[in-house]
Design goal:
Largest sheet: 5 strands, mixed
Shape: globular
Number of domains: 1
Structural class: alpha+beta
Radius of gyration: 15 Å
Strand order of the largest sheet: 1-5-8-10-9
Helix content: 10-25%
């Protein structure tokens, strides 16, 4: 299955185990996210089926780079994940990376500028169940011009 991941780093090509210290250039390792208040402190890379679900799972504004990950090695989150009904978040843990021969490839897809309007629009349409859950249908949500992803007019509130 293909998953999405957002990162502030534009130069990524892989996920490697957190036991690989230091992390090689161009790679990330599972870690406990800074914004995981009240969640289990399990080292992981968070992924979701679509870009819009990734955006809603990250409580931050600014430019984030979009990556796709083709892997079946993912872990269901444990404990309480407040937004999991919406985001369908999964985790790539060290165990998952090891199951993938010690490295999971990342493919760069572009970037999204997350601001209050984008976040509000996605939350409104998510609550109304207007956003597609199937990754193949996500193109109706986004205008992709060169590398920049922005909402299509019908999803701007």
């Amino acid at each position: 299955m293909t998953w999405c991941h957002l990162s502030p780093d534009k130069s990524l090509d892989s996920i490697v185990p957190s036991t690989n210290a230091p992390t090689p250039i161009g790679a990330i390792s599972p870690r406990v996210p800074e914004s995981s208040h009240g969640e289990d402190p399990i080292v992981r890379v968070c992924v979701a089926p679509t870009v819009w679900q990734c955006v809603l799972s990250i409580p931050r504004y600014g430019t984030l780079y979009i990556y796709s990950i083709d892997t079946d090695a993912v872990t269901d989150p444990t404990g309480t994940i407040a937004d999991n009904k919406t985001t369908h978040e999964k985790w790539i843990t060290d165990k998952d990376v090891q199951q993938s021969n010690g490295k999971v490839a990342l493919t760069y897809r572009g970037y999204v500028n997350i601001d209050r309007q984008l976040m509000t629009s996605l939350k409104v349409h998510s609550h109304k169940n207007n956003l597609p859950l199937a990754p193949k249908d996500e193109s109706s949500v986004w205008n992709i011009r060169e590398e920049q992803w922005s909402l299509t007019q019908k999803f701007i509130t």
